[in-house]
Each structure stands twice: as C-alpha cells, then as structure tokens.
Amino acid sequence: MKKIFIAGHRGMVGKALVRAASNDFQLLTTTRDQLDLCAQTAVFDYLAQEKPDIVIIAAAKVGGIHANSTYPADFIYENLAIASNLVEGSRRAEVPRVLFLGSTCIYPKLAPQPMPEDCLLTSPLEVTNEAYAVAKIAGLKLCQHYRAQHGLMYHSAMPTNLYGPGDNYHPENSHVIPALIRRFHEAKERGDSTVTIWGSGTPRREFLHVDDLAAACFHLLALESPPDWVNVGVGDDVTIFELATLVAKTVGFTGLILTDPSKPDGTPRKLVDITKIKETGWSPQVSFEIGLANAYQDFLSTLESGSARL
Questions:
Q1: In 37, 46, 67, 198, which residue has its Cα 20 to 30 A from 84's Cα atom?
Q2: Residue 234 has pLDDT above 90, yes or no
Q3: pLDDT score, position 305
C-alpha cells in the first residue's frame, strides 16, 4: 500500500482529500503543532524519515479579497515557504510523485475567457491577490522545473474557486460562498429585511465543489504522464449577484439583496478552460444546487457542534 502525505489535511481541501483517499493509501498527516511547513529543516527531516510515495501539497495560507489585500507579505512568504520546503524536501527524500495545488488566480487579470493553461504569465495579475498568486506560480514552476531537470513526476492542479464542507466562515477572511452563507444565515436568524454584498455584483465567478477537486486529484495521480499543470473547474460561471441569490434561496433568506459598489470587485471574470483535464477522462459530478445545499448543511452541523471555523 502506497504511503501518501497530505500536507494541510485539516483544511477544507485536505479533508476532502482524506475522504477521497479512503482505505486505498496509508495516510500520513501532521498538525501545524507537530510540523511547521514553513520550517525548512523540520520539513526535510520529516520527509526523510517517513519517505512517502506521494506528497499532495494542499497546505496554504488562504483568504478572500480583504485578507489578501491586508496581509500580502504573510500570503507571499508563507505560501512560498510551504511550496519550496515540500518540493525540495520531497526531492531530497526521493519522493517519486508530488501534486501541488494552486489556484486559477495565477492567471492574468485580463486573461482570455475561458482561461487556458498557456495564458500564464502573459500579462499582469489582479493586484488584490498578487502576493498569493505569485507564490502559487512559483510552486507550479518548482514542480515543472524539478520534473524537467530531475525527471521526477512533480505536477500541479489549478482549481477554480472552491466551496464545500470544512470551509472557513470568518466574516472578513473567508471566500465568497462561506461568507455569503454566514451572512444570509445570520440575517435570517435576526429577521433582517436586507443584506448588502461587496462590490457591484457583476463580476462572474466559477465554483467547484471540493469533493470534485479531490476526485480530480486522485484521477491525475493515476495518470502515467499528466500535464505539468492543469485547470480544474466546472466550465460555467455565475455573477456574484446571481450567486448571492442562490445562496439566499438555499439558506432561506427572503429579504432584499443590495450591492455596495464602493467595495472592490476584483477580477471581472475567472472562468477556466477545462478542456485539458476533460481530455484525460475527468469531469465534475456535483451540481451547484446540491453542492450549495451540502455546504449549508455542513455550516449548520459545525455551528451546532461548535466546530465551525468562524
């Protein structure tokens, strides 16, 4: 049975990977208290000792527009450190397979839509999440060049916006779907007549359920020679206002939804071209309606148990 180290197993993506791995692998996991992924020597020693067959780099410092624009130094440093320590540490420990998880925010702000993999580095990034994007581009390039120079099967997956069980519902540092779930839920509980969302509501976004991403990761790991990096998405998108309407319906909020154009919109559109991964035989399975219901149920369950990431 192959040993697989899932870095970041307690995050939303990591939990989905653990669920998907099931009993097919011998799982290796560590908490931040046990292993600081920003500490190079500790990471190198851990990988040398455990010698996993596969490393999935799902650990990352993540957040929405507010967090990215407020703490850019934290985002670029921590994500660079995690990527470089785990990739080089894997090489030194002779780990034969590494899958690095990035984000489609690596692509230019005004990239063609849908965004193909080869539009990377062709024009400027969206400034509000530049620090995070640069770190993720570096991780992708680490894997690409280690593969070319050392002959190692190190490759990457670039998921679009993710949502699902285990998400972070912090009012300022969360992504848009969990932020909206919490906001509409609390508004419903208070009996509010309106909810105001950030920005104009016109930017379009694509959303992938985290269990679909996990399935895509293990699909890629089963391929003998996957692409250096590949987009993972659903191939469709909605406006932020349409998203808010869908979340409100899922939560049961029946008031008015207002916009605040004084707040930043971010990238106008972020739809990815998923032709490349679909050609390998993978496609998303979770419908948006079912996925949102699943995410809200998880929010309610974790809220009741006191384990919600608030």
A1: 67
A2: yes
A3: 83
CATH fold label, 3-305: Rossmann fold (3.40.50)
Task: State the DSSP H helix or E strand holding residue 66, giving kind and residue range, or none if neither.
Answer: helix 65-70
Give 55-95 pLDDT, tens digit per residue.
Answer: 999 999 987 777 788 899 999 999 999 999 999 999 999 99
Task: Say if CB 29 and CB 6 are below 8 A apart.
Answer: yes
Q: For the chain, what is the total number of helices (H) and then of strands (E)?
A: 10, 13
pTM of the model: 0.93
**If you search the block for the tokens 């912090």, which residue do you land on?**
170
What secondary structure, in 3-state letters, does 116-160 show?
CHHHCCCCCCCHHHHHHHHHHHHHHHHHHHHHHHHCCEEEEEEEC
Spatial CB neighbours of 305, under 8 Å, sequence gap ≥ 6: none
Predicted confidence band at 310 (pLDDT cuts at 50, 70, 90)? Answer: low
pLDDT at 175: 82
Task: Look at residue 67 in the predicted model and tell me its pLDDT.
Answer: 79
The predicted pLDDT at position 129 comes to 87
Q: Is 3 exposed, middle or buried (0-12, 13-18, 19+ CB in 10 A)?
A: middle
In angstroms, what CA-CA distances link 86 with 108, 112, 171, 208?
26, 32, 31, 26
Tell me the domain boundaries of the chain. Answer: 3-305
* Residue 49: exposure state from Cβ atoms within 10 A (0-12, 13-18, ≥19): exposed
Contacts of 162 (CB under 8 A, 6+ apart): 12, 13, 175, 207, 208, 209, 210, 213
Q: Residues with catalytic annotation? A: 132
Residue of 54, 57, 77 whose CA lies nearest to 3: 54
Name beta bridge partners: 28.
5
